[in-house]
Amino acid sequence: MSAKTADKVATAVIITFAGVIVLIMAGLLGFILFRGVGHISWDFLTSAPQTIKAGGGIGPQLFNSLFLLVLTMIITIPLGLGAGIYMSQYSKPGKVTNFIRLIVEVLSSFPSIVVGLFGLLVIVNIFGFGFSLFSGALALTVFNLPLMVRITEQAMASVPLAQKEASLALGLSKWKTIKSIMLPIALPIIITGTILSAGRVFGEAAALLFTAGMSSPRLDFGNWNPLSPTSPLNPFRPAETLAVHIWKINSEGLAPDAPEIAAGASAVLILTVLIFNLLARYIGRLMHKKFTATK
């Protein structure tokens, strides 16, 4: 076989594989959205679920998912930025640095059920936080932290070395160089990676079953006291997220219209993740244009 023929065959095979993957993903998304979009309404998005009659929605579960996302990113972003900057700018090559990178890679591949059991043993029981949003946020930090560290490290490493050396040559300290020169350049990549890692929070269920719990107290959305057990802003209350609700409604089947609720909730979950991914791309492009002066 000539080189030209081999190139055409390889190109056709690669295009075929890519097309199959696209068709599978499009079919999966289309099936979920087709089954669920018709059940989505304002009442469905804002009302509480019903267990003894048809109707109800996913309002508390959707709020819990968003609140859990905020709590998780409040913990993850500072830790991930600090560790990533240390790994890229302060750590010296050697066995210790390689060991830290190995630990980060191992954590990023941990099964979610293992993280959930770890959270149940350590966070819920030993530390005494109980089944709560805060326990779930700490467990999800175990998932997101390795990704944030790698993203920050790679973003800082992508800054041109000439700009760093020029800043140091002008007499700026290392921290000033990192803060004023390197971070603004690396910020578009960090923001994009942060939003993408945040999207993983919505789809996680196994770890939250053992940390955030499978039920929520009846929330009073007029009560904004974060210390009240019925306040939606209380981070130490049990909370059923949207992904956990989908699993629970399908496994228990107590509601008469459980299949419809599960289909609608699945569509909302898919749309939320899609919005996060599109938002990440859009913000990443805006930040890249701002800091690189490109059109």
From TrEMBL:
Gene3D superfamilies linked: MetI-like (1.10.3720.10)
CDD domains recorded: TM_PBP2
Subcellular location: Cell membrane
Membrane-spanning segments: 12-34, 66-87, 99-123, 129-149, 181-202, 261-280
Coiled-coil ranges (or none): none
Occurrences of domain ABC transmembrane type-1 (ranges): 62-280
Superkingdom of the organism of origin: Bacteria
Keyword Amino-acid biosynthesis appears in the UniProt entry: no
Alphabetically ordered keywords of this record: Cell membrane, Membrane, Transmembrane, Transmembrane helix, Transport
Membrane topology: Multi-pass membrane protein
Family of the protein in this entry: Belongs to the binding-protein-dependent transport system permease family. CysTW subfamily.
The protein, known as: Phosphate transport system permease protein PstA
Taxonomic lineage of the native organism: Bacteria, Bacillati, Bacillota, Bacilli, Bacillales
